[in-house]
Every structure is written in C-alpha cells, then in structure tokens.
Inverse folding.
C-alpha cells in the first residue's frame, strides 16, 4: 500500500511538472503575440497548473494593456460610424456632435474628415460645400476642437477666406473665454481656501485676485466682511498683548523700588525707636 501510494504521488508530481512546463510554454508563446484570446487561454492554463511568478504577472499586465487598447479602438470605430450616419442623413448639428465624439475618443483626424465630408463618394465641389457648411455651424458653436478641425478642412478644400477668417476670430474669442473661465475658477478656489486662514493679509490678497478675475460681487462682499472681522480680532490681540506687557513692566518696576512713586526702602524711624 505504501509503495502504491508513493508511486501515485510520484505520478501526480510528474503530471503537475508537465502541466506547468506546458503552461509556461503557452505563456511564452502568448506574450508578445498581441492577442487577448491567446493570453486569456495561457493565463487560464497557468492558473489550473498552479503556476505563479513573474511570467504570469507579466502576461496579466500585457493582457490588461491589450484589452484597454481594444476598448479604445472599438470606441473609435463606433464614433466614426456615428459620423457616417450623421452625414448620410445630413444632420449637421448631429454631425458636429459626432465629430466631437470621434475626436474625444482619439479617432484619426484624417478618418474623421473622410467620413464627415464623404471623401469616398463625393465630388470636390460637394466636399467644399460640406466643409463650408460645417465651418459655419462650428463657428456658431463653442467647441474649440471641432472648430479647429473644420478650419483645417476648410483650408484643404479652399473654402472662402472670409469664412475661414471669421472662424479663426471666433476661435480666438473662445480661447479668451476659456482662459477667463479658468482664471475665475482658480480665483474662486483661492478665495475659498483663504477664507479658512486667520491672517488678514492672506485673505486680502485673495480678495484682490477674485475681484480682478470677476468673482461674484456677493462672494467678494462676504469675504470682505470676513476680512474685517479678522482685522478686528488681530487688533484686539494686539491690545491685549500690549496690556499684558504693560502689567509685566509695572510689576518689575515695583519689585525694583522704582514703581509709581512708592519706595521699597524701610519707613522712617519713630521718635520712640530713636530714643
């Protein structure tokens, strides 16, 4: 019985070693092949064989990267399909939204242009007309990325310079508005942070920045009220500190015998003491 058990254990050990060698070989083949399916199969085989270690960790990490890339690519394909559908139905506002969506997921700008202008099934005049139409609608919108794309397409397809210039001016306005909005948000956040400070000069500086950035008058008014309270508190602390210092000085003077006109020397002797 012992002999039989030992033989069975040895056989199981050999099977496990063989399974791990095969799993390791499968991992080495799948790693670098660029296939999520191959990695899934190899990782599953390694897990069943109880194989762990750096090789398995690397395979799992590669699998996550490939899966993320696949999801991105799938999102780009869906976004480009939405561009084609919107163009075929001549839904210009919807087409601009689809262009924006394709740009946000990182679709190739050349492919976005191809599908937005219908490069595969339209004549040059048709492409120019579509480019001009998209440029006009984008100029009326507020998305800088879409406007950038339509400006570049308009230049490629020789849309009238006046329309391109108007679009560029609109783009500059949007950039200025974006910067102002960013400054406003930063100033408002700075004012909120300074509100919690106890030093008046910190809040005063934040109020000046907020006022220059266009933070709401009500928020600035409340901050100024808070600043006034901080200044009063600081003034009271200064008065209390001065009083305390004055008391300490008086006590020291008294101890030295040069206080407020009172001598610390012994009083004059009486006649009885002299006698």
């Amino acid at each position: 019985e012992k002999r039989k058990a030992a033989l069975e254990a040895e056989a199981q050990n050999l099977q496990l070693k063989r399974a791990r060698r095969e799993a390791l070989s499968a991992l080495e083949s799948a790693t670098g092949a660029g296939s999520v399916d191959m990695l899934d199969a190899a990782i599953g085989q390694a897990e069943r064989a109880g194989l762990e270690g750096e090789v398995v960790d690397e395979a799992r990490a590669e699998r996550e990267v490939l899966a993320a890339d696949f999801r991105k690519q799938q999102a780009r394909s869906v976004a480009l399909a939405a561009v084609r559908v919107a163009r075929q139905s001549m839904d210009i506002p919807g087409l601009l939204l689809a262009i924006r969506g394709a740009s946000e997921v990182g679709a190739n700008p050349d492919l976005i242009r191809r599908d937005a202008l219908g490069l595969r099934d339209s004549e040059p005049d048709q492409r120019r007309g579509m480019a001009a139409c998209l440029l006009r609608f984008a100029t009326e919108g507020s998305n800088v990325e879409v406007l950038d794309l339509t400006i570049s397409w308009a230049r490629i397809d020789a849309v009238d310079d006046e329309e391109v210039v108007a679009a560029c001016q609109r783009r500059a306005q949007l950039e200025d508005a974006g910067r102002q909005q960013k400054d406003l948000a930063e100033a408002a956040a700075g004012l909120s942070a300074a509100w919690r400070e106890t030093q008046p000069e910190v809040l005063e500086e934040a109020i000046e920045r907020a006022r220059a950035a266009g933070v709401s008058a009500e928020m600035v008014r409340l901050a100024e009220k808070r600043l006034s309270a901080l200044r009063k508190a600081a003034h009271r602390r200064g008065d209390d500190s001065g009083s305390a210092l004055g008391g300490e000085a008086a006590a020291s003077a008294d101890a030295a015998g040069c206080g407020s006109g009172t001598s610390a020397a012994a009083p004059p002797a009486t006649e009885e003491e002299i006698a």
User: Anything to note?
Assistant: The longest helix spans residues 217-256. Residues 255-275 have pLDDT under 50 and may be disordered. The chain is about 80% helix and 0% strand.
